[in-house]
Amino acid sequence: MRRDDDSPLSLPESGGGNVAGPQSGRGTSVLGIERGLVRRLLDTLGDPPFSVILWDGHPVEPVPSDPIARVHIRDRGAFYRLLRHPDLHFGDDYAAGRIEVEGDLAELLTVVDLTRQQRHGAGGGRPGLTSRLYRARRNTLAGSRENIHHHYDLGNEFYALWLDEDMLYTCAYFEDPQMGLEAAQRAKMDHVARKLRLEPGQTVVEAGCGWGSLARHLAREFGVTVKAFNISTEQIAYAREQVRAEGLEDRVQFIQDDYRNVTGTYDAFVSVGMLEHVGTDHYRELGGVIDRVLSEGGRALVHSIGRNRPIGPMNPWIERRIFPGAYPPALSETTEIFEPYNFSIQDVENLRLHYALTLEHWLQRYNAHEEEVRRRFGEKFVRAWRLYLSGSIAAFRSGSLQLFQLVFSRPTDNELPWTRHYLYPGAGG
Amino acid sequence: MRRDDDSPLSLPESGGGNVAGPQSGRGTSVLGIERGLVRRLLDTLGDPPFSVILWDGHPVEPVPSDPIARVHIRDRGAFYRLLRHPDLHFGDDYAAGRIEVEGDLAELLTVVDLTRQQRHGAGGGRPGLTSRLYRARRNTLAGSRENIHHHYDLGNEFYALWLDEDMLYTCAYFEDPQMGLEAAQRAKMDHVARKLRLEPGQTVVEAGCGWGSLARHLAREFGVTVKAFNISTEQIAYAREQVRAEGLEDRVQFIQDDYRNVTGTYDAFVSVGMLEHVGTDHYRELGGVIDRVLSEGGRALVHSIGRNRPIGPMNPWIERRIFPGAYPPALSETTEIFEPYNFSIQDVENLRLHYALTLEHWLQRYNAHEEEVRRRFGEKFVRAWRLYLSGSIAAFRSGSLQLFQLVFSRPTDNELPWTRHYLYPGAGG
What we know:
2 copies of one chain form a homodimer. Chain A is an alpha/beta fold and 429 residues long. In chain A, 42% of the residues lie in helices and 15% in strands. The interface between A and B is large, with 53 and 53 residues.
């Protein structure tokens, strides 16, 4: 057995799970002590409705009746890594198959998230030493390129397997929870357009345009001209191809550059799902960009994952393995975008449950295409992304993460709609 | 002439406006220097469209063509006080009649506010030394009683002269800007009730209930039971009388006590127009009260005057003479209410222009009842309140002040409406 040298717990040299019999774990044997540790951990989690099965193939007792999932810890190394830093190592060992989950992974993670919130508040209370020392990768111009490349340049084909047909990789807006993902993504684009009060002939700048669907949708459906920025090579290539195919080149321009290099003046600024990658150190700079390019009567909308309060970095496994440089801000942290420029917040909407539902659609499609993902990226990748999607569902369901849409304008602009009725053209009488 | 000893400017012992001829102000005479000072001040304000007439009866030149107002400074003392601390002394000297305004006072103040914002950002830029040293009266339990008494116990008859028939002394909600004040105040109560998603039989606690109309409206129209807190003696007496007259005593209870003494558990917490009087030092305490009394699935709404960013205390004249202890927070300052308790912001709506319109209705009614106010309180009071209402119109029109409605709930509550359609039952198709 590999000695886990970093472990703060003293680990005997001898005794592996495979040599101990089923009963050996109940006494003072090494495995027995380890079972006791799991039991204590489960007790502090409030005796959650899942069972844990150690590497000897036996569950830690008592086993809950009707468990929602069974968590298999396949070897002792995974066990001690999990004790030391669960937020990082659960992910790595799940991806490597050293931890396996039978049952509903998203539901399991939701239960764990909820339990933590009940114990400590969102995100498990104040950030521990590890996360306080931990620093997200810096989003300098060069750093941003590297961070964005890591996630978004996995290949358009990969994302096409499980995103909607318009390739929107942000929270959809379900006017009704029963509507399909395609319709909900279109409804999101319409909702954003309405919030921006776009009129034909107006100009829009988009910071972080993904595969370009919002830019094309706004030009096609709302008659505006859009300049859209993105630093991802693969996304920009796809966006340009689509805009040519649709014959919208005269009204949509895709620019492969950082949002900080935006020039010109526009009637609307929009950014959907970019703020998570900006980093709080750069919010003031982002606000300065908006201040520089927004016309006097202009409207701005920022759509971003967020949190109820600042509690340090995101889940470290997600941040390291999936989304380098990502950070979901609390509303209080976003003020650096607005206050230095005297922007006036008009509207904040929290669409948290819409993101949980969006992710459920994505996970379902992802699972249906698992074989293709495996062929291209291998088993570890398949498992890592399954965990990432499931964990994200859990975070939005449990309230660890929020989805904020913020609308703001110049402080002296009095050309404001009287009410928000205009956002709900289909509301019944 | 009275020597203004506090003035940092050296003032000659001799030479009054009344002895100098109209031309004497143009040369190097004292009055000429004073005219030069006004001219420079007007220049820094961007040559605003109003004229200033000094105590000799002559305007400072050049006079703008088609001025929106003419400001008369009646004596030299008022002039130097205005130079020294305009935000405080304009009010005092206007109330005393030493400054007079011919024309639209609200429009004049709006122009000044807008000009300042264009120069420095909202509120005239960073707070000066005076306002940084200045501290709003403390809102301890005893301090709050004194501060609230100062404003709200002027007599119900006084407020009845110019408020709507339901005596709502907070921003109305104009579904249409043409609707009357009475209808707009009822629409506000309905809007608040919808945001709280009240259902018959539920319980509501109200912190700072004014004359009790919201509490009665919620009980009568939405079938809930309300416990409403207020520390103003006169308001509570009026509220109790009204609730008896309506026969709603079994469902509305008015308690003359501080919001910090609220006990029990409720389906909804509501506070309309109290936060301005709470003081940022006490926001965490307010959040603690809400956390203590809100049920698991409860909804909370705070409706308050606010600002785009924290720029020190409110206009000192308003704070000293009209509203002791008042402070309109920036959204970033309100986070102490939410973040320590992991509350989840669901909705923020800015109703700034609704408050400008509400105040226009109040001012119109106030002006129509000026004689009655004069009989009871005298000329100085009449002028002070005219200025207060006009200055408030200006602050909301110019964007110096905002009106925020914030809706929040427990972090793990997933019983949320899918969209905000339910807030707009009358929206067209």
